[in-house]
Specification:
Length: 249
Amino acid sequence: MENEVSAFLNYLEFECEVSPCTLSSYGDDLKQFEGFLLDMNSKRGEDGRGIDYALVGEDDVREWVMHLFDQKMEASSVRRKLATLRTFFSFLKREGKVRRSIMLRVSIPKLKKRLPQFLEEGEMDTLLDFSYDKDSFEEVRDRAILQTFYQTGIRRAELLSLKMQDVDLSSKWIKVLGKGNKERTIPFGEELKSVLEEYLALRGKISFACDNFFVKEKGEEMSAMEVYWVVRNALTQVSTLQKRSPHVL
């Protein structure tokens, strides 16, 4: 078994060029599965027998799955471990070590659907009405970002891709390029117009700025993580939601 796993891990590392983290996860999953199989052999009075993967069946995998759930493991983690076995047995079949992949007949546990999380109305009011320094570029910009998310419903990627020409304050609309390269125009009201005008007044003082609508204080593009932290830091002040990303606005 050790030689088979070693050959599989070498295949992943040198032919598939997976990351060290992924390689370690595969190795840990297979080591855990091996330990379970050896324990099963011991209970059957077969301590001296090693692991012959040609003799491992679907029921062995199903028992392992039940064992993992008995240990209170999350379905997402079990699914990942089964994905490891699926890749491993496909490799063994390709190498002629097994006649077929037993994983084709093993059901993958379904993930629980989580209800979306949203701010309460009072929390949203507090978030949008917080006091800020009108001379601080970052505070004015962050307020504009929060208001844009809330009043237009655009996604983070869409906000990051906004160019100066995509925002028309006089007509009060934003043009975004969404999923599937579909362009749409989103109208907005006087409140957001006022917030964006305040932001643009400070943005206009930057000596050089890229064409992106929302930029850093020195005119550079913002990253997705920087926008994420703008929202997360603001939500931390007003909400106890575990999820604190633009999706809750």
